[in-house]
Structures are given as C-alpha cells and as structure tokens.
Amino acid sequence: MSFFYRNGTLCAEQLPLDELARRFGTPCYVYSRAAIELAYAAYSSALAGREALICYSVKANPNLAVLSLMARLGAGFDIVSGGELARVLAARGDPGKIVFSGVGKTELEIEQALLAEIRCINLESEPELERVNAVADRLGRRAPVAFRVNPDVDAKTHRHISTGLKQNKFGVAYDDAERLYARAARMRNIEIYGIGCHIGSQLTDPAPFVEAAARIATLAARLEATGIPMAHIDLGGGIGINYRDESPPPVAEFIAGALAALGTNRSGLILDPGRSIVGNAGLLLTRIEYVKPGAAKSFLVVDAAMNDLLRPALYEAWHEVRAVREAPPGATPIAYDIVGPVCESGDFLARERQLVASAGDLLAVMSAGAYGMSMSSNYNSRPRAAEVLVDGEQAHLIRARETTEDLFALERILP
Ligand SMILES: *Cc1c(COP(=O)(O)O)cnc(C)c1O
C-alpha cells in the first residue's frame, strides 16, 4: 500500500523509485513513513484500554530518524547496547520508556543505563544481577530490574532466530526464576519491576507467543504471592511479517491471544516489536550492473550485495524482488539469480526469480526495512548505502551514503 506501481513505475508513497535513484544514487534503502506509522498503530489500537508500553526494538532499524518518529508516536525502546542507548537519547527518546535487554551488558553499559534513569534492565543471568547490584551500589542508586525468563517454548521459527528454548543462550531458566527473584529482592540496590521473555523472531503462528504469555503469567502470579511486585510483564517482540507467503495473522490476533492468556493479571504490558514495525516499511533499491547469461544459471549482477542486506546469505531469507519498471506486456521473463559484487558464493540477494531485465534497470528488494541496514557492513571495502525516508511527496536523506574516505578514516599507517 505504501509501495505500488503508478504508470508502470514502482513508487514509494508519492515518489517514483527511479526518481529517488537519480537523486540519491544506488544502492539505497527507502522507507515509508506512512507504513511505519500504520504498523505502530496496529499495536497501539490492539492495546487500547490496557496499561501498555510499546518498546520499539532498536536493533531492527536504528536510524535516528526512525527512532525520532517512534518517539513522537509515544513509543518506548528496547535496546541491547550502550550504542543503542546513545542513539535513543540523541533521537530524544524518553529514557523512562527504555528497557535494556541482552546477555552481555558491560559495567560501563549498566552505568550508562542507570545514569540515564531508564525504566528497566532485563537481567539474563545471576552474575549479571550481581554486577548490576554492584554498579548501582557504587553509584548510590537502586537499579530497576526484571528477569528475562526463558519459558522453554518452541517458537517454530528459523533456528538462528529462535531464542526461547532451554538450549538458547538467552534468559534465565524458568525453574530457577523464583530463587533468583528471592535473591534479587534481598539486594539493597535492586528494585524489581517485573518479568519478561522474548521467544524469537519472525513468529508466524500466535500459539507459541500465547503459550509463553501463559507461562510467564503463571510465574508472575507465583512471584506476587511471595510479595514480589510485578509492575509489568514484557512479552518481547518477534511477531512475523509477510516476506513471501507466510501470511502471519494480524498483530491484533497475537495480542488478543496474549491478553487472554494473561487472564486476570493487571500488570502493565510491555511489547518490544522490531521487524513488524519497520520490516515491510522499507526496500533496498539497487541497479543492475551486468546481465550475465550462463549455461546452468543466469545472473543479474547488481550494485547491492550481502554487505548491504545480509539476511539471504545469513538465514537463506527470501525477499521479493520487483522490477521498478513494469515489464511490457508480452515480454518473456527469464529465471535469474540476483547477486552482488562481493567475493563470496554466499553473496546473493535472491535466487531463481523470473524477471525481464537489462543492464541499468532498477530492482527493489522488498521487506528490507528491518535487519537490513542495521546488519550491514563494509565488507569488501564497500561504503554503506544511503537511507531515504519518504513522507508523501517528500524524500528525506536520513543517512548519507558513506564515502570511500569514511572507510578508513579511523585507520593509521605505521610510523
Ligand atoms: C530482537 C529483539 C526483539 C525484536 O524482535 P523482532 O522479531 O524484530 O520483533 C524484541 N525483544 C528482544 C529482547 C530482542 O532481542
């Protein structure tokens, strides 16, 4: 709905992508403001009437412009590093709405979080509890905490993005939670705010999400019975989007299921969605450098690569690829692998796609708004792509294309 063909040319809101390519160059990430706001609205309306906070998961797309959009919508933020904390503060996000997840928080990061007075540190181990208590003691503060509990449910998603099973590195074990909370409750510099979980990403079935909610609600009730307050329950993120034909049910259905599982529990609800806010709100615009026919396979060599969009190489993720100019009627499409210039066989964006294509044509790799730019690198000494946010008829350059000088600006030749 934010990306559609008009007069045979794919547009982002009101702007044709060929115009954006001329103006900003390729490869280039293009996001739709309306699509981001609509995705957020799906959460806020499904949560209407419940005390709730939507903490946008910064790692999905940490561009300052995206963060400031979220802040203006009233969102909080789920962060996983000191760098993300600094970004949220720079984008004028409310520190009182930040939750801090991750298994490896350093002393410095914990100190930064406490000084910024964030809402909650989600603890993922007992040594981390001890470290947070010690840092808070040194600073003369009380640290707001929750434990991320591993509910041991199978998210039934790709094994690399499943996080809620016993064998995953995330969270504390369900059976250990009561002992840990009891210990935390006795610590002088710890203040318990709640409990959390996050079972994985790209969930297309609400059942594991709802099951995790039920297990966490059961535990929360047991903890409250022992006098431990549960101001909030954080059910994580992970709701899936449509890349191909997954057709996950609407966000409202996941949330209705979770609310039903929480039953009479009246704690505030926190959700930390990332992909489902920005994933389908962005695309990667790329130009075909060469058409390379072959006996076994034909290739479109494009100017974007695995360093720009890692998901296909990393997870064998499937992204829809559209020609920016619609093919003329009657033209015969050919099956192509769409590959980048990086020196790795794993450097592909898509395989076996039927397209009518010539060198110089533009392609749009769809559903690239989440874990696209945020996972990009400079591999092969490729400057990172530009990022553009479209708002109606206006295009804002929200990250300039890196220059080749940027690539080695921090490096020094030996004296
Ligand atoms: C990554 C992450 C999320 C966001 O996951 P999505 O699949 O992008 O919604 C939420 N919570 C935590 C703790 C995470 O690590």
Structure description:
It is a single chain. This protein is of the alpha/beta class. Helix content is 28%, strand content 25%. The protein has 12 helices and 21 strands. The protein has helices at 17-24, 33-46, 64-72, 82-90, 107-116, 126-139, 177-185, 206-225, 251-262, 275-278, 311-315, 404-407, and strands at 3-6, 9-12, 15-16, 28-32, 52-57, 76-79, 98-100, 120-123, 143-150, 172-173, 190-196, 232-234, 268-271, 282-292, 299-302, 321-323, 334-339, 348-355, 362-365, 386-391, 394-399. Strands 4, 14, 15, 16, 17, 18, 19, 20 and 21 form a 9-stranded mixed sheet that branches. Strands 5-6-7-8-9-11-12-13 form an 8-stranded parallel barrel, surrounded by 6 helices. A 3-stranded antiparallel sheet has the order 1-2-3. α5 (107-116) packs across α6 and α8 runs parallel beside α9 (251-262). Residues 57, 59-60, 78, 80, 101, 198, 201, 236-238, 272-276, 370 line the site of pyridoxal-5'-phosphate.
Task: Give a short summary of the structure.
This protein is 28% helix and 25% strand. The protein has twelve helices and 21 strands.
Bound molecules: pyridoxal-5'-phosphate
Shape: globular
Helical content (DSSP H or I, runs of 4+): 25-40%
Low-confidence stretches: none
The termini sit apart by: 57 Å
Give the SSE map.
Elements: E1 3-6, E2 9-12, E3 15-16, H1 17-24, E4 28-32, H2 33-46, E5 52-57, H3 64-72, E6 76-79, H4 82-90, E7 98-100, H5 107-116, E8 120-123, H6 126-139, E9 143-150, E10 172-173, H7 177-185, E11 190-196, H8 206-225, E12 232-234, H9 251-262, E13 268-271, H10 275-278, E14 282-292, E15 299-302, H11 311-315, E16 321-323, E17 334-339, E18 348-355, E19 362-365, E20 386-391, E21 394-399, H12 404-407
Parallel strand pairs: 4-20, 5-6, 5-13, 6-7, 7-8, 8-9, 9-10, 9-11, 11-12, 12-13, 15-17
Antiparallel strand pairs: 1-2, 2-3, 4-14, 14-15, 14-19, 16-19, 17-18, 20-21
Helix pairs in contact: 2-9, 5-6, 8-9
